[in-house]
Design a protein that fits this description.
Blueprint (H helix, E strand, L loop, with lengths): L3 H9 L9 H10 L28 H19 L1
């Protein structure tokens, strides 16, 4: 499958299941076209990394975005 959307549509058609973030599924969960299953070992935790090329200009916008990411991920780690 080439995209998150095509995977969701396949599952909505009853042709399988998927492991995706709640963020990706919020519309379908709200509409009731998909539902969450209680599965042992979930939720899955993943690490993400921010890469910034050396020498690139650090703008105020980038600094605000990075700080927002730090705050959100800190809150997520408390859950």
């Amino acid at each position: 499958m080439g995209s998150t959307q095509s995977i969701k549509e396949t599952v909505e058609a009853g042709l399988g299941l998927t492991l995706q973030s709640n963020l990706c599924l919020r519309k379908e969960l709200g509409l009731g076209t998909l539902k969450l299953l209680d599965v042992a070992g979930l939720p899955v935790r993943r690490n993400f990394h921010i890469l910034i090329r050396v020498g690139d200009l650090r703008t105020r916008t980038l600094d605000v975005f990075l700080e927002a990411l730090r705050l959100v991920t800190a809150e997520m780690n408390e859950i």
